[in-house]
């Protein structure tokens, strides 16, 4: 029995994220048991509609899509699918198709090319395989066009393996098939397979000339893995087939040569198309050339080419000025950067990429205030710009501003990404704000970023900077993947916290995991060797460096100079310094410190003069080294000369370190009152080190009265300072004031303070022997103490009178 039912209904338009333009039409639905005729009136802005198979069996559908059987109506549905796909509404396009087949309408081939694209846009391989199944079911998979679309869909879904499997089963392959595979491998980062597929294509198609798409993907792969030989072969293939003047392929060739570091060949390609009116005036080609110069650090050539581009009347675009701003950042040339800024305003190149690059340029060129202003004035805020401004603030001495910006970001957005977490963790590390950093750590755990290798490395660095190596190790060992940055953060943390043995053990473990160290790693390891003062370790590290880094590196060489000096080998320090092809301020400071440490004061002064002749400006570290050497050598006049030169000749305001050196110099020479007066004129707040230096001088010269005044200043700053209390007690003991000795030591006991016992070590025949005060654990302790007793007797025979401690030392326990 045939049942006919007429019904007027409306179709929801907003569910498809756009308004629909629909017209009334009739739909005929047939099935084996009955026929239902529905007359429909379709209107916009509805919320639901009803469709009935018969008057007695009704079903309600919300946000549905209606399709028709007639040829005209199938075309309308196909147009809807195509329109939604092109506009990026992939789910809506798929829903139209699924509703269509749900009512039993026959499927036609014309649906599938757009549908495959829509499924690829979802980047969901499981759903993509559903449309693959539909194609098999309806028998449309024999068409090479459909197969090529499926290949592209699998690559977009990240299912390269499925794409390869399907490609290998294809009996018919056209240029699009090969191009899809070559581009797919390239875009997924498998550049070797991309080139292999390109070679197969040329071979299997009998030398047929590939098209532009294949060439561009192959050239991009060559550049990415710096495979110059294959790149030159492709270049020859292009010349042979007369394609070497194609503007897109010219850009690809220049980019490939620049990435391979072959600037000469890139210039040759560029010069050959200069006279071509079409290609020679192509802005993209000029942009690629300028970017290549910048990437290869040929900054002056890049700037000259940009000026020539302007002279030829080629108008720059956003990629051009972004590259030029990167150039200014590398040159640290604020003047040129401001000129580029003016050009940007004149050309109205106002987008988020340009704004971010402009802001970074001001930060890198030493004008962070303007960089912050650029951020505040920007009309385009995205995660990249927020992350950039926070990172630049953290790295350029504005950590407090980075934390403030992070607070603003959280109020506006609520959820940071890993880049922003990295920036705020750097700020916390710089300020050693452990409580705030732990809050950020909690946020990272909450958002699931704590296992991220970059965030994890920043957390290890943060806890290391805050002195909590236990937690740093806990975070480090909790990382699923540990890269070079993570290992460097751990080793650096150990070195900074004077855990030299642990730093060396971590270095060995790192190599066990096949992680190759870099120069930063080696500088941290050398810092550990310096702390241990073990010569054999220093030489082992030096040999390792010679094997793996035959070329001189400034960071490692400077670390070697300091390490050898602290291990007692000033000759090796000087040799490393002399062999440096280029010496920066750190190199000169390192050798000055090494000479001063070994008492070669005159040589140090002469080296300082050579530093000035090399047109290198001394910094605060340089003068700290000079003043410290003057203090130990008792050269008061030379100390005053350098102290005044620092302010007059180099406009450097003295810091606490330089004032401490001057106080120590005057105190050692017996000018105690002058040293005290100098402290009282310090513009910054003097710390316990400044006062402690003067207290040691008071002890040396027996000035009890001034020592009491100085000690009060120290104990106000640090009441728990046991070392200075012991020093004061020893001063009272030397002066015979046993009552004050007893009072000070009673205070030490009452406050529960304990002095760390003295420790020393010596290297004999590549073995380290450690000695602690009052220790008898060494296996040769009887012989050692017998030798000390014998030396003491010899000293007494020549007139030495030892000072015997008369008071109890139990507070040292």
TrEMBL record:
Gene3D superfamilies to which the protein is assigned, alphabetical: Tetratricopeptide repeat domain
Keywords from the named record: Repeat
GO molecular function: mRNA binding
Any GO BP: RNA modification
Magnesium keyword on record: no
Pfam family, one: PPR_2
InterPro entries: E_motif, PPR_At4g14850-like_plant, PPR_rpt, TPR-like_helical_dom_sf
Lineage: superkingdom: Eukaryota
PPR repeat copies, ranges: 174-204, 282-316, 382-417, 483-517, 584-618, 619-654
Protein name: Chlororespiratory reduction 21
Native source organism of the sequence: Dovyalis caffra
């Amino acid at each position: 029995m045939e049942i006919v039912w007429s019904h007027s209904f409306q179709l929801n338009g907003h569910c498809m994220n756009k308004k629909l333009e629909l017209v009334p039409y009739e739909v005929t639905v047939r099935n084996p048991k009955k026929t239902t005729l529905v007359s429909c009136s379709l209107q916009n802005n509805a919320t639901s509609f009803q469709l009935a198979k018969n008057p007695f069996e009704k079903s309600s559908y919300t946000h549905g899509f209606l399709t028709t059987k007639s040829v005209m109506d199938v075309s309308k549905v196909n147009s809807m699918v195509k329109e939604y796909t092109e506009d990026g509404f992939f789910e809506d396009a798929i829903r139209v198709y699924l509703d269509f087949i749900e009512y039993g309408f026959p499927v036609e081939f014309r649906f599938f090319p757009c549908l495959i694209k829509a499924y690829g846009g979802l980047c969901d391989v499981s759903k993509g395989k559903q449309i693959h199944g539909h194609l098999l079911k309806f028998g449309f998979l024999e068409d090479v066009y459909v197969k090529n679309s499926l290949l592209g869909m699998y690559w977009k879904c990240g299912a390269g393996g499925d794409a390869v499997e399907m490609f290998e089963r294809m009996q018919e392959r056209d240029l699009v098939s090969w191009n899809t595979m070559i581009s797919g491998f390239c875009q997924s980062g498998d550049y070797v397979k991309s080139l292999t597929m390109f070679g197969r294509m040329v071979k299997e198609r009998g030398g047929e000339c590939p098209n532009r798409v294949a060439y561009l993907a192959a050239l991009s792969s060559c550049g990415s893995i710096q495979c110059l030989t294959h790149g030159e072969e492709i270049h020859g293939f292009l010349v042979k087939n007369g394609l070497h003047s194609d503007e897109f392929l010219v850009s690809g060739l220049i980019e490939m040569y620049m990435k391979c570091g072959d600037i000469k060949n890139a210039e040759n390609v560029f010069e050959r198309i200069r006279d071509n009116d079409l290609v020679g005036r192509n802005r993209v080609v000029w942009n690629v050339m300028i970017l290549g110069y910048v990437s290869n650090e040929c900054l002056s050539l890049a700037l000259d080419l940009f000026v020539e581009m302007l002279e030829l009347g080629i108008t720059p675009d956003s990629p051009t000025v972004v590259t030029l701003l990167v150039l200014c950042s590398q040159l640290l040339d604020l003047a040129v950067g401001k000129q580029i800024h003016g050009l940007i305003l004149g050309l109205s190149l106002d987008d988020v990429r340009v704004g971010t690059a402009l802001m970074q340029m001001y930060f890198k060129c030493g004008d962070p205030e303007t960089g912050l202003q650029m951020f505040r004035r920007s009309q385009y805020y995205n995660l990249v710009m927020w992350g950039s401004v926070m990172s630049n603030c953290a790295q350029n001495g504005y950590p407090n501003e980075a934390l403030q910006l992070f607070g603003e970001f959280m109020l506006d957005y609520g959820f940071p990404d890993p880049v922003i977490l990295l920036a705020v963790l750097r700020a916390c590390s710089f300020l050693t704000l452990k409580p705030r950093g732990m809050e950020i750590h909690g946020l990272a755990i909450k958002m699931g970023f704590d296992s991220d290798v970059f965030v994890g490395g920043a957390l290890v660095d943060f806890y290391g900077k805050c002195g909590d190596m236990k937690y740093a190790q806990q975070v480090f060992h909790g990382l699923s993947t540990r890269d070079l940055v993570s290992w460097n953060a751990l080793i650096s943390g150990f070195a900074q916290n004077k855990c030299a043995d642990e730093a060396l053990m971590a270095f060995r473990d790192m190599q066990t995991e096949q992680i190759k160290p870099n120069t930063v790693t080696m500088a941290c390891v050398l810092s550990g060797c310096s702390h241990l003062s073990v010569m054999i370790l220093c030489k082992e590290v030096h040999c390792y460096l010679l094997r793996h880094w035959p070329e001189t590196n400034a960071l490692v060489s400077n670390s070697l100079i300091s390490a050898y000096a602290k291990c007692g080998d000033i000759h090796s320090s000087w040799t490393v310094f002399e062999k440096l092809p280029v010496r920066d301020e750190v190199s000169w400071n390192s050798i000055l410190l090494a000479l001063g440490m070994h008492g070669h004061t005159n040589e140090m002064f002469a080296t300082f003069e050579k530093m000035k002749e090399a047109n290198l400006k001394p910094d605060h570290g340089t003068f700290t080294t000079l003043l410290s050497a003057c203090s130990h050598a008792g050269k008061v006049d030379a100390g005053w000369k350098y102290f005044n030169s620092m302010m007059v000749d180099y406009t450097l305001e003295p810091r606490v370190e330089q004032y401490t050196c001057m106080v120590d110099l005057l105190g050692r020479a017996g000018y105690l009152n002058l040293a005290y007066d100098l402290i009282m004129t310090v513009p910054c707040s003097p710390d316990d080190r400044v006062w402690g230096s003067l207290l040691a001088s008071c002890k040396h010269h027996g000035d009890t009265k001034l020592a009491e005044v100085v000690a009060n200043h120290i104990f106000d700053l640090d009441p728990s300072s046991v070392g200075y209390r012991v020093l004061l007690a020893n001063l009272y003991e030397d002066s015979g004031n046993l009552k004050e000795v007893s009072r000070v030591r009673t205070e030490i006991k009452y406050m529960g303070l304990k002095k760390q016992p003295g420790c020393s070590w010596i290297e004999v025949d590549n073995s380290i022997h450690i000695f602690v005060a009052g220790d008898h654990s060494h296996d040769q302790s009887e012989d050692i103490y017998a030798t000390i007793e014998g030396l003491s007797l010899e000293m007494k025979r020549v007139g030495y009178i030892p000072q015997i401690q008369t008071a109890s030392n139990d507070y040292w326990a």
